[in-house]
């Protein structure tokens, strides 16, 4: 369904009223979305399983939703301009198995939050306009996600909803990262993913108040007959609580365990038609989607130059180190670089630089800025990489990145 056709259902007055709330949303948007989630979980506690409660506590989800609501209001009369954002969110929704019946629940609680937070600034006319606008925006998402579900079902080995997979191998990659290899429990083929995509794992923990859903990048090349996820154990440092699901996957899940997962999703994917040099830059566990891109490019574009740069604390937490070194030695077109910010005494032969990846380092090891750049890692790392690439005069169209969790602003 075309967005331009849907938006014709809104009259000019409704659009003008919604656009008039843009300054208020810019000022109070996060207050609205924080209150929205409070109301949603109070009125519909069964939906807690869909939302990552860690992101809720950190405020990341509220901020991401506030940005989405603001964009929708700003572009209410030309929603085609936010379709990239819609598709990005729709990929997340598909991975979480969001259904059309969820949208009225969200709308009811969002309108209640707008009314409560804006108070006198949101009279009946504003609320009616936003109710109409939300209906249109919801239809855009429902239509987009319907197409995604249908495409997933039509794909060879594809499926919708959750499908049981068996853990056929479990490999410790570092002190904090462990890989799980997954094959379909029914013995049937599984869909071939695009390099960079992720799956959602449903953790059904005995005694827990609800099931947990967590998204993990597929860290292997497509087409190998099995999926691999490489999970960092979150130990709860610096005042943060331990990660419930990451610890569960590390401690309780073993060979033979069954994990329900959704089909691969995600917009952060490799453009395999591009033949220019490929530059992959990862920080910590951000290496997972980039490993899929690395292995896939070696397999399918053996002549393409690849520069893989990884930053982490030291050798103890450096996952996949030996596997990547083997790829470097075996393939002349692969060039790998490792940066440790706190190396141990035993790490001398494992890293190329102490400190951080910055513009000076990139400009020294990369022969050109006319390349395809992909990066992933913690927020601060990604902001630094983006700034360095801008200094390196890389065009925006050649810069690709993904946040783990809700999308955030990468520019300082």
UniProtKB/TrEMBL annotation:
InterPro entries: FAD-bd_FR_type, Flavoprot_Pyr_Nucl_cyt_Rdtase, FNR_nucleotide-bd, Globin, Globin-like_sf, Globin/Proto, Hmp, OxRdtase_FAD/NAD-bd. The record marks 37 as: Involved in heme-bound ligand stabilization and O-O bond activation. Its EC number is 1.14.12.17. One of its GO terms (molecular function) is FAD binding. Residues 160-271 form the FAD-binding FR-type domain. It comes from the Bacteria. The record marks 92, 402 as: Influences the redox potential of the prosthetic heme and FAD groups. Keywords: Detoxification, Dioxygenase, FAD, Flavoprotein, Heme, Iron, Metal-binding, NAD, NADP, Oxidoreductase, Oxygen transport, Transport. Binds 1 heme b (iron(II)-protoporphyrin IX) group per subunit. Binds 1 FAD per subunit. CDD domains: flavohem_like_fad_nad_binding, Yhb1-globin-like. NADP(+) binds at residues 284-289. Residues 157-412 are annotated as: Reductase. It is an enzyme of class 1 (oxidoreductase). Residues 9-146 form the Globin domain. It catalyses: 2 nitric oxide + NADPH + 2 O2 = 2 nitrate + NADP(+) + H(+); 2 nitric oxide + NADH + 2 O2 = 2 nitrate + NAD(+) + H(+). Gene3D superfamilies: Globins (1.10.490.10), Nucleotide-binding domain of ferredoxin-NADP reductase (FNR) module (3.40.50.80), Translation factors (2.40.30.10). Heme b binds at residue 93. Its cofactor is heme b; FAD. PROSITE patterns: FAD_FR, GLOBIN. Consists of two distinct domains; an N-terminal heme-containing oxygen-binding domain and a C-terminal reductase domain with binding sites for FAD and NAD(P)H. Belongs to the globin family. Two-domain flavohemoproteins subfamily. In the C-terminal section; belongs to the flavoprotein pyridine nucleotide cytochrome reductase family. Is involved in NO detoxification in an aerobic process, termed nitric oxide dioxygenase (NOD) reaction that utilizes O(2) and NAD(P)H to convert NO to nitrate, which protects the bacterium from various noxious nitrogen compounds. Therefore, plays a central role in the inducible response to nitrosative stress. This is Flavohemoprotein.
């Amino acid at each position: 369904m075309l967005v331009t056709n849907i938006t014709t259902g809104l009259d000019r007055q409704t659009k003008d009223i919604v656009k008039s709330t843009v300054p208020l949303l810019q000022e109070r948007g996060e207050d609205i979305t924080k209150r929205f989630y409070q109301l949603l979980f109070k009125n519909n506690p069964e939906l807690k399983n869909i939302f990552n409660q860690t992101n809720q506590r950190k405020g990341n989800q509220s901020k991401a939703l506030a940005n989405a609501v603001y964009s929708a209001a700003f572009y209410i009369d030309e929603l085609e301009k936010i379709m990239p954002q819609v598709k990005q969110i729709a990929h997340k929704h598909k991975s979480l198995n969001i259904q059309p019946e969820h949208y009225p629940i969200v709308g009811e609680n969002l309108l209640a939050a707008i009314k409560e937070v804006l108070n006198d600034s949101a009279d009946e006319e504003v609320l009616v306009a936003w109710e109409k606008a939300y209906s249109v925006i919801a239809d855009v998402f429902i239509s987009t996600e319907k197409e995604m579900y249908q495409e997933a079902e039509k794909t060879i080995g594809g499926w919708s909803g959750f499908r049981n997979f068996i853990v056929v191998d479990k490999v410790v990659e570092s002190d904090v990262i462990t890989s799980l290899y997954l094959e379909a429990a029914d013995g049937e083929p599984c869909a071939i993913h695009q390099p960079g995509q992720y799956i959602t794992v449903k953790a059904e923990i005995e005694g827990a108040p609800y099931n947990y859903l967590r998204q993990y990048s597929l860290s292997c090349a497509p087409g190998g007959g099995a999926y691999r996820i490489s999970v960092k154990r979150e130990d709860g440092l610096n005042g943060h609580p331990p990660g419930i699901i990451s610890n569960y996957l590390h401690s309780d899940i073993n060979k033979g365990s069954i994990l329900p997962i959704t089909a691969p999703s995600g917009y952060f994917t490799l453009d395999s038609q591009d033949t220019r040099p490929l530059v992959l830059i990862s920080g910590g566990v951000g290496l997972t989607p980039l490993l899929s891109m690395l292995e896939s490019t070696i397999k399918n574009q053996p002549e393409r130059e690849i520069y893989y740069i990884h930053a982490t604390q030291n050798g103890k937490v450096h996952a996949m180190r030996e596997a990547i070194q083997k790829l470097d030695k075996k393939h002349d077109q692969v060039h790998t670089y490792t940066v440790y910010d706190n190396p141990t005494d035993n790490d001398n032969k494992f890293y190329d630089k102490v400190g951080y990846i910055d513009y000076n380092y990139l400009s020294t090891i990369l022969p050109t800025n006319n390349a395809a750049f992909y990066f992933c890692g913690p927020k601060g790392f990604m902001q630094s990489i983006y700034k360095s690439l801008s200094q390196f005069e890389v065009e925006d169209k050649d810069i690709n990145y993904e946040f783990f969790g809700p999308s955030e602003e990468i520019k300082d």
